[in-house]
Input
Amino acid sequence: MKRKIYNQILRWKQIWDGRTALLVDGARRIGKSWIVEEFARNEYKSYILIDFNNVADGIIELFEHHLTDLDDFFNRLSILSGVQLHKRASVIIFDEVQVFPKARAAIKYLVKDGRYDYIETGSLVSINHNVKDIVIPSEETRIDMFPMDMEEFMWAVDKGMLWDFVRDCFNKRKPLGQSLHRQMMELLRTYLLVGGMPQAVAEYVEKKDFRRVDAIKRNILALYRNDISKYAGRQAPAVTRIFDNIPSALQKHEKRFRPVQIRKGARMRDFADAMFWLDESRVANFCYAATEPSVALSLNRDDAKVKLYMGDTGLLVSMSFSEAQLEIGGVYEKILRGKLEFNKGMLTENLVAQLLRAAGHPLYFYSCASRENKDDRMEVDFLIRKEAVTSRHNILPVEVKSSSRFTVTSLEKFKRKFTSYIGESYVMHIGDLEIKDGTVFLPLYMAGLM
Output
């Protein structure tokens, strides 16, 4: 399937020309191995893929005993793989490099040699778990990869022309019109249910069977829980409880993670290590409170206030409903038709978080619970920063609404209080694009275009 990260990898190849290796980092099952091999097949004269989850003993022996003589190392590697290597025209892929840390340690010397390019794939949490007794190479360029976003999903279902029109409407700030907007909302609900895990998307494209898609997503969730048990060590019980708590936390009004929901009397610092592990796994998207909406959002981050969103909304759907509920209640069909009564705000806000994160935005929100001044009481779902920073008006507040009836009281308070910080303000909603009272009301499917 077509993925945007392909062009990022191409830029790395063109800019660095072998002076660094590339590390593609992301959660399990998001398509890292597939896109890297596709890139190697298209952009190089030859490539060797070493999958450290399933590697021959002879390859392991090369890293153990032959790295001191790289001429001998490459000659043996070429013979064992049956692939001829060409100077500055071949790439060697270290797939799931975390399984064999010595290979990652060798990157320093292989890059310095300069004959070939090197691409590594892995999950950061498992990579960092396996670094004992090795030197972490500084000769790495890292690219974050995420599940398929709305645009990539549109490509997969052969609606690329429609998406080009959506993008044009966003850029020109004009509505799609009733018919095309209705079609896009149906596609958005489909994307919400299927999610962006490539295996689930491929199954949907081929079979159009949500039950088969759901089975794939539950297998992925089981894999994530197995990874927690395998890599989280002493933190595994805490990480599992936080992970399993995400749907219930998102159903609450504030949607914030509260330690007392996990253990009575607990505080944030009691779960600091577990939260760090979950953040590195990329399974969840962390959204931190900003105490002030200045351009330096990271410097105003309040680690004590955080929302946890699932990295993929399709996985959140499967976490939120049992298989029996999906089967007996026809949940998928009802959500697809917009007929199911439940906390739609949970899925909608998670979806916007997922699309913003895939678009490269770190996630922040603003919240003030002042008891003294009602004008200070407000909560804005997301704050993102303009791509081109200016002297003022760099922060773009984003509110998310899941129904046709809503107010924008918090957003209006926020705009009045922080007028010098604020650029364009957005409300993501189920309606078509419109501009009203200085606020841009965007349809939900445009979230990744901001």
